[in-house]
Design a protein that fits this description.
Shape: elongated
Protein name: Outer membrane beta-barrel protein
Number of helices: 2
InterPro entries: DUF6089, OMP/PagP_B-barrel
Helix content: 10-25%
CATH architecture: Beta Barrel
Pfam families: DUF6089
CATH class: Mainly Beta
Largest sheet: 8 strands, antiparallel, barrel
Number of domains: 1
Domain DUF6089: 16-221
Number of strands: 8
Structural class: mainly beta
CATH topology: Porin
Order of helices and strands: HEEEHEEEEE
Distance between the termini: 51 Å
Length: 222
Amino acid sequence: MPVAPVLVRLFLAGFFLLPTISRAQKIEVGGALGGMLYKGDISPTLNPRFVQPGGGLFFRYHPTRSVALRVQVSTGRLVGVDSLTTDAFQRARGASFRNTVREFAVLGEYKFRNYTPLRNVKNWTPYVFGGLGVFTHGLRQPGEKPLNIAFPLGVGVKYEFHRPWTLGLEWGTRFTFTDSLDGLKQPTAGTPRLNQSDPDTNDQYTFVALTLSYTFYKVFCP
């Protein structure tokens, strides 16, 4: 079975189970739109020239006012070009790549300011998040498993500009255990040195996004 439909099914299953899990807690659903950046052998630092479009869908539930749990699916493109660097080795290698990443993640968030479910209160807060994700990409090496593990870690801020609508800005990096996001081959006896990856470092990707979400507040009868 293709991996992408599996990730979508995981997201939908969690979405329909969430009301049962959270019961009386507030539920928040939304989307994210922004850019993805690759960091690895071809781009050792986050180079804004390589920003590519990315997006996702998510839902949160709030066990407490300071803690939230989020399930999210994301997808985006990654690119890198050796010719745009000043490093002599990379310019001699001349490698470039285009890749697509699809991700499913379960995240925990800590909000530094409590959201207050009262009328006429302007809710906003910075927050940090981290968790566990699985992802697939299009440049897997022979023998590499279709699903890879990632550890998302990041920061964000959100503002409830018009209840129940909230805008947010988020920056999150995914630390992975793969070195094949750029398509460079693992070092072997038959692989030219210029086409080899660095086995001591794994690739990463970063997702910077604007978010828009809708919160389902519990209605209290007078």
